[in-house]
Amino acid sequence: MSQPDLPGAPEAQPAARAAEPPPPVDPALDALERALALQQEGQHSHVIEAAVPHLEEGGPAEGADPSFIRAVLWTVVGISRHALGDIEGAQGALEAATAYARDRKQFGQRIGDFQMIQAMLADMDAQTEAARQLLYAACEVIEAGAPDAARWAAMCKLVAGDTAMRVTTDAVQVFGGYGYVDEFPVERMMRDAKITQLYEGTQQIQRLVIARALLGRSGN
Ligand SMILES: Cc1cc2nc3c(=O)[nH]c(=O)nc-3n(C[C@H](O)[C@H](O)[C@H](O)COP(=O)(O)OP(=O)(O)OC[C@H]3O[C@@H](n4cnc5c(N)ncnc54)[C@H](O)[C@@H]3O)c2cc1C
User: Fold this and answer.
1) Helices (H), 110-180
2) CB count, 10 Å around CB of 42?
3) Rounded distance, CA 182 to CA 73, Å?
4) pLDDT tens digits for 157-198?
5) Is 106 helix (H, G, I), strand (E, B) or coil?
6) Structural domains of the chain, with CATH
7) Which residues line the pocket of ligand 1, CB cutoff 6 A?
8) Smallest CA separation from ligand 1 atom 44, residue
């Protein structure tokens, strides 16, 4: 029996629509999701290994999914971005140390007036900029789908992680004893820099990837 048309009654629902086909899968997004799922399962080393056949063959190996490989490489580059970042990475440490060197006075002058502090700040700046330029170059190479993209991702992560460790450690040095205590931000930056040398493939693994690309062989 049909419902009478009462005021405020819900409108009659249209007949259920025929099942629609699922939306097409975006290969790039699908690959990224698979790479991230591997990470979440604690399979970082498998994620990095997935990129290796790409360079061993001088191009995508037979059966290798180029979208997947590219997504893997982007996750490695993402760590480099974190390592050099202006909030907790090398750039952030440089800015914090520079500001401190302007304010802190010892022996009647700003510590930024001491040449040894100036030299440290100059090295921190130059090293951070150099690593950043490599990061930009690696992004372009990976985006272009170059056959040696894995080598670039590995070089980028190796240099960015080591730069972050060096620069944040120097930032602690500029702060002196205050750098070591948690009222100031740089001890945290130094600890955070260390993880960029470990996860998403340790620095040793990045060196293996680069060396294999150079020597053109698989295995150790
Ligand atoms: C804070 C934090 C977050 C993490 N998040 C994640 C995550 O989200 N997903 C995930 O999958 N993992 C994650 N990890 C794990 C991380 O990826 C691993 O710790 C890292 O891959 C190193 O593996 P391992 O600790 O087993 O060290 P090992 O593999 O035991 O390595 C120990 C040492 O031996 C060296 N080594 C190992 N093999 C070789 C080799 N063939 N040649 C030369 N040297 C070698 C390593 O470089 C390292 O110096 C996280 C770790 C930490 C600390």
Assistant:
1) 115-143, 149-175
2) 8
3) 34
4) 999 999 999 999 999 999 999 999 999 999 999 999 999 999
5) strand
6) 29-215 (1.20.140.10)
7) 39, 42-45, 195, 198-199, 202, 204-205, 208
8) 204
